[in-house]
Structure prediction request, 137 residues.
Amino acid sequence: MKLVPPTPTTKAPTERFTGDVYLNSLHNGEAPSRLVAAIVRFTPGARTNWHSHPLGQTLHCTDGVGFVASRDGSVILMRAGDTVHTPPGEEHWHGATQDNMMCHLALVEHDNGESATWLEPVSDQDYEAAHAKASQS
Prediction:
């Protein structure tokens, strides 16, 4: 057992995120572990690009309000205490609503060193559609 020192907060790379997003890495598994864990903080309107994970992803919202949306048009409004799982290979995005910050714990497993396939940015139209769909729920 060992105490792991905290990592510095870093700004998320602009080629994978829209808006201001901040990351704190918690764990980057070394064999036999494959766990990758991070705290991700989104400012209002900020979001990931479309992406997928070879072994799926679990998100646990710790604060605020945000979305998880998939290519089929499904949208989940995520609030503090909610946990959302995306299955392996499902293209999706997640981020904060227009008026709220959102923080989540992101848990994935890497497969031969790869934990995500990053795709194109989420368009403003797709982001607005998620808002509209969530407000109908």
Summary: The longest strand covers residues 57-70.
